[in-house]
Design a protein that fits this description.
Distance between the termini: 44 Å
Number of helices: 9
Oligomer: single chain
Order of helices and strands: HEEHEHEHHEEHEEHEEHHE
Number of strands: 11
Strand content: 15-25%
Helix content: 25-40%
């Protein structure tokens, strides 16, 4: 397939207009007119992922997190981002990243998280004028005890531990969420009646002084853990194209737990 046609499919579901202003979604490396018959899907682009693409004959890597987030001032072996670009260019491998363009899209990353949790009657926490939005809020099939709900989350996202704030005897019925670093939506989620807010990471001080959010339980799953199913979403988007698709076998989570 021609790369630009694959990009067109990705951007049909995750238009670049949906991305946040700070972001750098889109084609990171490569020629849109190039041809490829295989794509490797991942959350993050690392040197090991590029090596896997080379070894497996993949002409395209599709990631969630952008390889090039801040501008590169040179191409040397100084950083892993620069080394990845050098390796990809030498091997003729294109790299495309669908980051907040996919987070904010209807049917995107946050919808996938809501699907895993089992939420219905979804609303955007922070709608965008051009469509889509940041974060979602919806309802559980039935109210759940807070501790029971945390156990359910740990099982659904295959995590051993989570960070959370005390909820007392509160029952969890209305749940807000945002994959990755979504703590900026906590206050708005509380105003919308959320009993619990779920995201990937929350800073220590964000657990304090949450004003109207103080009655709402907050849960941090881990950034990687909250978005780990994005590769399934990418596979779903590209699945009917004449491409050989594979999910990376590399664990790109840079954080380890004991």
């Amino acid at each position: 397939m021609i790369l630009k046609d694959i990009i067109a499919r990705l951007e049909q579901y995750a238009p670049l207009a949906f991305q946040d202003g700070f972001d750098n979604s889109g084609l990171q490396v490569g020629d849109p007119s190039a041809e490829t018959g295989a794509a490797l899907l991942c959350l993050d682009v690392t040197e090991e992922v590029v090596d896997e693409a080379v070894a497996g004959g993949f002409g395209l890597i599709v990631s969630h997190h952008p390889l090039i987030f801040n501008p590169l001032k040179h191409l040397t072996p100084a950083t892993y981002q620069e080394r990845c670009v050098i390796k990809a260019v030498r091997a003729g491998i294109a790299i495309y990243s669908a980051h907040t363009s996919l987070d904010n899209a209807p049917g995107g990353v946050n919808d996938r998280i809501a699907e895993i949790i089992g939420l219905s009657e979804l609303e955007w926490i922070e709608p965008k004028p051009q469509g889509g939005g940041s974060g979602l809020i919806g309802n559980l099939p039935a109210p759940a005890d807070a501790e029971e709900f945390i156990s359910t989350l740990k099982k659904a996202f295959d995590v051993q531990t989570v960070m959370y704030s005390e909820a007392g005897d509160r029952r969890i019925s209305r749940v807000a969420l945002c994959g990755g670093a979504g703590a900026f939506l906590m206050e708005r989620a509380a105003q919308m009646g959320a009993d619990c807010f779920i995201t990937g990471e929350i800073s220590y001080h964000s657990f304090f002084g949450r004003s109207s959010a103080s009655e709402m339980m907050a849960v941090a799953l881990g950034h990687y853990q909250s978005e780990q199913f994005t590769v399934d979403l990418l596979a779903r988007i590209l699945g009917d194209l004449p491409l050989r698709l594979a999910k990376t076998s590399i664990d790109t989570n840079p954080i380890r737990y004991r």
